[in-house]
Amino acid sequence: MENPTVPGKPAEADNSPDAVTPAQTRWERSVLETLMVETLAEQKRTRRWRATVSLLWLSFFALILLLILGATAGRQAGTGLERHTALIDVKGVIAAESKASADKIISALQAAYKDKNTQGVVLRIDSPGGSPVQSGYINDEMKRLRALHKDIPLYVVVQDICASGGYYVAVAADKIYVNKASIVGSVGVLMDGFGFTGAMDKLGVERRLVTAGSNKGFLDPFSPVNPEQQKFAQQMVTEIHEQFIKVVREGRGKRLKETPEMFSGLVWSGEKSVALGLADAIGGLDYVAREVIKAETIVDYTPEDSLSEQFARRIGASVGAVASDALWQSLATRLLSERATPTVR
Description:
This protein is of the alpha/beta class. It has helices at 22-72, 102-114, 132-148, 165-170, 197-203, 227-252, 270-276, 285-293, 307-340, and strands at residues 84-91, 118-127, 154-163, 175-178, 183-185, 267-269, 281-282, 298-300. Strands 1, 2, 3, 4, 5, 6, 7 and 8 form an 8-stranded mixed beta sheet that branches.
């Protein structure tokens, strides 16, 4: 081999103590590369951790802010600045913790009547019913406000359905307007449940119930039917039914054309309900505001959930969706593995 620095002369080996061999150079380069990679990875981990901590703190403060705003911002949908029809939606099951709870509907009614520009109030009902207690609270407050504000009429407009507890609320209005295809009625009361004694016998399960009070296990679904308890429950349901009938008769008065089936729990179309006196006329929200109340502008007083309630509901829905997806994925994986794996039975 020739020396590259001096043409024509052979290369001489460097045997000095300080000479660096190619193997040493490769080793040092490998160490440096490893150190650089580790350093960069550590920096990335540090940045990622800092970002995660910052995001957690930001989420925490955002949650605190939502809770604070939610405590003060369960809003009524606005005060009208001109003559208007006040609208309150009664939607879904009427229950203590629902959007159609007595507390929320009563609060909205009071706000609507308090506004000096309210010319009339419309409860737009789309409800299959619910608690007779919650319905009774709303009915009582409607009658109180009507008596207190005789110059401000209160009407009900039925959408798809106004049944049972929904109709219990409706009869407190001055008039009830329906669509011809609305479902109206269901003046009745029910108390339902299940009995598991037959299934327990087949499974060999023994019920061990200890009570203080002979009727403390009232209508227990895991015990045989007690005829005396069943009789008592029937009496209680009948009593509440009679209360319901009384409220309907008081609310509808002479407009009601009673038939043997009227209080049996049956429902009727909106058109038939008008003929029976369960409702007054065919008409929707815009018609009532424009032609009856004579205040075409509609202001919505329906109470909305606070920000904290909306946040909690969304978080709950997200968690439920994640759990559901995980469950279905687990089941699908198991089914596929069972189909793919031979078994001996």
